[in-house]
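Bug: token stream looks shifted between consecutive jobs. Job 1:
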Amino acid sequence: MNDIDAWVWWLVGAAALGIPLVVTAMPEFGMLAVGAIAAAAVAGLGSGLVIQVLTFVVVSVALIAVVRPIAARHGRQRPQLATGIDALKGKQAVVTERVDGSGGRIKLAGEIWSARSLDTDRAYDVGQEVDVVEIEGATAIVI
């Protein structure tokens, strides 16, 4: 055990920290693994144990302090490109079968959708353009 250089132990530690990174998808383990790699580099240059540990701590803490807030900020942002039913909200459609509070049909994005009026007292006739405000299941809510 004494014949193995310290840098090898740091690389083993980095690999060991990479396993929970993959299993739990917690990026903090990756940042700790990078700290261990930095400590392995310092150990490979011949620095003592105290410098190795300080390098590990400083690099790991710096990465966590800098990267985590950036990742959290990006995680809270809504995607710029709406897809699926989110992309249909706000689109215009053409009534193909009278739409009122109880139902009807519209042509939306080239497809026929069941639809109902947001205002139950309002009805839309065939050929009229409507705006989609919400999608509930397979039904478009229109105004």
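Job 2, same session, no restart:
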Amino acid sequence: MTDAAELKRRTAELLAAYPPATTDRLDFLRARFDAGLAWVHYPEGLGGLGAPRSLQAVVDAELEAAGAPDNDPRRIGIGLGMAAPTILKYGTDEQKQRFLRPLWTGEEVWCQLFSEPGAGSDLAALGTRAVREGEDWVVNGQKVWTSSAHLARWAILIARTDPDVPKHAGITYFLCDMTDPGIEVRPLRQITGEAEFNEVFITDVRIPDSRRLGEIGDGWRVAQTTLNNERVAIGGMRLPREGGMIAPAAKTWRERPELRTHDLHQRLLKLWVESEVSRLTAERLRQQLVAGQPGPEGAGMKLAFARLNQEISGLEVELRGEEGLLYDDWTMRRPELVDFTGRDAGYRYLRSKGNSIEGGTTEILLNIVAERVLGLPAEPRTDKDVAWKDLAR
């Protein structure tokens, strides 16, 4: 069985064979993947060694100390946090071999084609259609709020393949090539001035059946793996003490004593404590993942993440007074990642408004926590046994 000592030995061998100072970044990342040190809990040959998930920290610490490059996880977060675990669980051997390595090294960026203009919170009501033609599926529809679609090479896509059954039962999951004819990506300019989100129009796009993930009509179950991992990726990210959104607010408090008031002090202390509790809870959640797949607990973490970000950013704007009304740059651009701490307080305040929508709306996540974590009775659902085609729209 692979233990910490064995992982340190393998990491040392990697560093000796591919010295970070003289090795091309991409060559190093490919070698790390092939050595099983990308995500050690994955199977051998797929970037891992079948080791306990907790031992990844051993590898990461050794590589960081040696100055080795990472795979820029914030830029490829959708691939790492959502596509990869779904492909690992439901993909064929050929799909795993084809997609996981370039996904992890960052050679291929992924996006998520789930939400639609008429199917956001009620995702299972989606109307994008996929019709079988021989060995292909012809897909037509529109997706929205698609992060990184302007950068992505591949997408995880859910589409309706059977309108004659209830909405959850007629969905199939696909891997979509974003360079195929018929894919059109348009920017959505947000309240921040940027367009990190996009709307995607899909017109007669042909997806080979070999890029179907899971069984026909079983897409909703496959999508649950993606959604659970998405919530953990958003709400359970690893942070240092006083990391994340609380960091710039606390820094301003320490450096600008002239801005302090008793009321702001009390609010900052409360939010600092809540941030630390959330950070430690996220660490416990990651430790629970060692024993299996993420469950509905990730919904609770994502709820806390959204609420804290919005309250802390609001406090920071108040703390800065007139300065808090300033905005550094309203230029329309399409960024590669969201940088909360690299911009000013105004940006953090505006961007955090989206935290209660992306990755599952607050209202839907409250239902998930109530029903699947607390075991409360489910809300009545009148459309549960009605064919999708017969639903009012």
